[in-house]
């Protein structure tokens, strides 16, 4: 299964980001290259799917047709001015989201099945200078979010702490990181075009990859009382990729409805984060999404194509002075925002209005 991003890519990306903040990418090559090149079988659809989700309100029970973007023209090295690129870019403007499934996730599953004391060994030594805590963690008990995860930065930076088991965990992370970084650079190029920016602008503006990180997640089974996996949020970074197993539970808020991003083999969900929303002065949308837990464990892998913490983020002139529009955000240093967002997780405020979102910088 390939993203239909390329031929319709630029326009599709633009529309998808503008209207949904989510898009699905096909033809990205990444999953085929990462796995042993055979798609795993998708678990059969669970009878307890959306209809069971009564504890969190408003899940739309039908699947919404979402824009799909085929990246093939961008990967094939076709003529950049060609029709295929234009169509793909168009598709990406339209695009929304899709879902992924891949074998490397199974390494994560094997890790999470270990006893807690073994998982706890995958923790960094004190004094790590990583922008966020690496290694294994579980959401604090007072958090509404119910999951555990392993967080990793670019392996080349030397911050990561890998579990001893399963043995292939480290190589899976290393391989994923390289491939998903390449995909991030590609999507960023298309976004650059979608946004009508000078060619290569985003590549130069966001040329340091040391804040990108990846999180392998396991969500605990829902209970009779509650089923929140990750509360509704927007991602703070630039572009996020999610690869999920067949359990489902990721949902996107669209026009007031929670739309399930149902698992589709061999696809990756792409969503736009707050940095792009700010740079575009709200022309592109950072999608609100959440994870609703199902009766069984769910595994996913999220890759956050980010921006360096020292970068100053504010609406670009192309979306303000040059078009005579007032900026909707005041500028901020990215790492200040990332720290505030981290605090939301480590010290979850009891009042929802105290949770920091990008609106913190809204004018
Ligand atoms: O697990 C998922 O499907 C999404 C995770 C997510 O939204 C996040 O980590 O920000
Ligand atoms: Fe997210």
From TrEMBL:
Transmembrane segments: none annotated. Keywords: Iron, Metal-binding, Oxidoreductase. The keyword Oxidoreductase applies. Residues 35-58 are annotated as: Disordered. Its cofactor is L-ascorbate. Signal peptide: none annotated. SUPFAM superfamilies: Clavaminate synthase-like (SSF51197). PROSITE patterns: FE2OG_OXY (PS51471). GO terms for molecular function: metal ion binding; oxidoreductase activity. Residues 210-307 form the Fe2OG dioxygenase domain. Belongs to the iron/ascorbate-dependent oxidoreductase family. This is Fe2OG dioxygenase domain-containing protein.
